[in-house]
Amino acid sequence: MYRIFVAEDEPAALNHILTLIELKCPRFEVAGTADNGKTAFEQMEKQLPDVLITDVRMPLMDGIELVCKVKEKYPSVLSVIISGYQEFDYARAAIQAGVCDYILKPVKPSVFQDCMRTIRGKLDKSYYTLRNRMLHKISTADTDIIDKIEFSRIFSEEGYYVALFRKNGLPQRFVNTGETEIFSIPEEQIMVYGRDEMETLCICPKELMVYGSFYELMQHIIEKEKRSASYYTLVLLGEAVPPVELPPAIQRLYQKLDSCLVIGKSRTIMLPDQEEQQARVLEEGNDLEYLRHLLRQGERRKATGEVERCFAEWEKREYTQLVIEDKVREIFGLFRRHHMLEESVEACGYYMDDAFYYAENMKRLTESVLQILGKNSNQEMARGKIDTQEYFERILCYMTENLANPLSPQMICRVFGISQTYLCRLFRSYSSKSFSKMLNEIRIEKACEIMNNRNELFVKDIAAMVGYADQFYFSRIFRAVKGVSPSEYMEKLSRV
After folding, report:
1. CA–CA distance, 176 with 153 (Å, rounded to integer)
2. Can you tell me whether residue 337 is helix, strand or coil?
3. Which of 106, 274, 314, 417 is in the most buried spot, having the most CB atoms within 10 Å?
4. Contact of 103 with 82, CB cutoff 8 Å
5. Taking the model in full, what pTM does it have?
């Protein structure tokens, strides 16, 4: 509900406006009233309205001065002037003060309703932008920097259910790959955010949960998403939280995801978690001691075999991704110390980030790490897989011609007979974008091409033609890439 503050010194006129808001404007509520401009301005900070409706002629402070002061101190508040004076000077002063509309008395219901419909459209757009900005802050920064007043305006419902769903590994964190953030489209009642396209943070207002449980709702929502995941991790709160507790609750979901994601294992965790298991790790240095010995002896072949054995043991013990990342970095350090790792530190970080992000299971992760370490590193070159722009273009061409089919790095590697590490090298050498970002952009560009040539098609049909099974998901990706929704894009085309 958007909040309106009304400043009007005539009781009959005030009651008329309040009645119109109640009967004709269901998305608005009255935050407060005042019979003079001075009191109205003093009440603004306490009431936190979205809209100010004020008469021009009032005691102590007139409407024009009130609007100017409000505009200066609360620039996000939208103002509407209502006056019985038809002189041009008043209208001009109101426009200069930055009002959204100027309505003459007596106020006609249809005119007032049209005005508030316009106001609502502006507020919807403004709140959508603010909400997305706030979700980005919560996911990437300390919640202490969140403006609590602004947050309470954006998230104003009684309570919220929250859940975090992640497909495959954690986001790429050590190398800037420029992944696209994903936001829900304005029409969706459940707010959605993803640090990349593999993630869905769902924020559901408590009032929407009339039937069933939030857990059941999440199972329904992610059903399609699960089909495109090698494995997934779902973390959710069992109870709704009030708005003031929402930022720390979301942070808790992210922290739990980081601490419990296991490569190749699908998991659902309900918080508060009764078990609250800590990551299980071997005694410091014990699990890599034999590897150190082999490297000191120069036994490279046996050392890579020992790495495979370690990975098999870590899979059995269900070590989390973060624990294994630490182990892998230690392994890279050991190989480099004994001059058995040709790749640079920067390249190893990039390849490792990619390996964990796309790994379908521990077996595939093990293969990628061994490729980085150099096992059979010359096989692809021996088969004629030359590191060239032309070869990279062949891969992009294949992706473009097969957009309607499921595409993943693993599938591309199988088609071209190359390793995932080699594919990563190609993208690093010939593109500033990651595989997933490149794929999304190719799909969206193809969707735009279809829209230009086949404007009679429905959005859901276009989504399916470029490889998106879910229309809402397609719309989120489209907006992230193009800045507008598919329907807005098609509407612009129709006007050309």
Report:
1. 33
2. helix
3. 314
4. yes
5. 0.84
pLDDT score of 278 more than 70: no
Q: What is the pLDDT of residue 53?
A: 95
Give the 3-state secondary structure of residue 25: coil
Tokens (6 digits) for 368: 């990628």
The burial of 44, by beta-carbon neighbours within 10 Å (0-12 exposed, 13-18 middle, 19 or more buried), is given as buried
168, 465 Cβ separation under 8 angstroms: no
Three-state secondary structure string covering 51-106: EEEEECCCCCCCHHHHHHHHHHHCCCCEEEEEECCCCHHHHHHHHHCCCCEEEECC
Give the number of other Cβ atoms within 10 Å of residue 17's Cβ: 22
Joined tokens for residue 353: 């980030």
Of 432, 437, 292, nearest in space to 358 by CA:
437
Q: How far apart are CA 201 and CA 236, in angstroms?
A: 10
Residues 73-88: tens digit of each pLDDT? 988 899 999 887 766 6
Cβ-count burial 420-443 (b if 16+ within 10 Å, e if not): bbbbbbbbbebeeebbbbbbbebb
Tokens of 228: 């495109």
Percent of the chain with pLDDT over 70: 92
Pair 356, 323: CB distance under 8 Å: no
- Tell me the C-alpha distance between 373 and 354, whole Å: 15
Q: Among candidates 178, 182, 227, 213, which has minimal Cα distance to 200?
A: 182
For 496, the 3-state DSSP assignment is coil
Exposed / middle / buried, residue 457 (Cβ in 10 Å: 0-12, 13-18, 19+):
middle
Burial label for 216, CB within 10 Å (0-12, 13-18, 19+), is exposed
Of 155, 253, 254, 251, the C-alpha closest to 207 is: 155
Torsion sign across C-alpha atoms 91, 92, 97, 100? positive
Q: Which of 72, 86, 19 is nearest to 41 (CA)?
A: 72
Other Cβ atoms within 10 Å of 115 Cβ, number: 20
- Count CA atoms closer than 13 A to 326's CA, side-chain side: 11
Per residue in 297-321, is it b (16+ CB within 10 Å) or e — as a string? eeebeebbebbeebbeebbeebbbb
Coil, strand or helix at 400: helix
What distance in Å separates the CA atoms of residue 424 and residue 426, rounded to the nearest whole number?
5
**In this structure, are residues 240 and 161 in contact, taking their beta carbons and an 8 Å threshold?**
yes
Looking at per-residue pLDDT, the higher value among 383 and 472 belongs to 472
Q: Name residue, tokens 């306490």.
A: 46
Structure tokens at 10: 């005539």
**Three-state secondary structure call for residue 7:** strand
